[in-house]
Amino acid sequence: MYIVMLGGPGSGKGSASKILTNQLNIPHISTGDMFREQIKKQTELGKLADSYISKGQLVPDEVTIQVVKDRLSWEDAKNGVILDGFPRTEEQAKALDQILEEQGKKVDLAPELRIPDEIIIQRVVNRVMCSNKECGAIYNLKFNPPKKTGICDICGSELISRSDDNEQTIKDRLSTYYKNSKVLVDYYKAKGVLYPICPEDPTAGNASVRVVEKIIEKCHQMN
Ligand code: ADP
Ligand code: ZN
User: Which parts of the chain register pLDDT below 70?
Assistant: First the structure.
């Protein structure tokens, strides 16, 4: 299954992708995570990406497409992947189709998480995540707090928040998202693979689990 996760910042796309990767046993490819990793390692790619990301701009298509193309050529990507944060432009969507087509594959499903803005803002400003990259657990101080303040329930590591998770940035990121996502939503709708999901109770602790159930159900219906 080649799955493209659509949904704005704070839509729960990342959390749902993490559960899906375990349940479907296919890799979770997040371009944002890949760029952050390169920035941390201070590689050439990291420095280049950072010069855009720190200004709130998208990394240029040719750079991003190459990064994803490389990643998709790994052995573990042969049976499917969950793409999170890519594609973000029509150019990227077309490039992805071409990369997959060369391997006789295609995007099978594009779930789109639809969450009201007020809820997204509440989610994002209260979001903390595990500093242990292997774990990557995400908590919400309001809706889904850790048992012990500042400590990950799963692995005991320290919890951190992302510097761009504040109210003004999230409002900017949301408006950018709506402006840019329309073309992708239309693109996948036209291909007949768009699957809009409006979670019944997006603030519930198990909201991501419910979203994943719906996606897996849909995958089964398609097979
Ligand atoms: P956000 O919550 O802002 O969507 P991400 O972790 O998905 O965060 O991405 C962080 C930043 O990395 C983005 O703001 C953008 O600058 C860059 N980035 C991630 N994915 C892409 C992409 N597909 N194309 C261009 N830039 C990207
Ligand atoms: Zn942890």
Answer: none
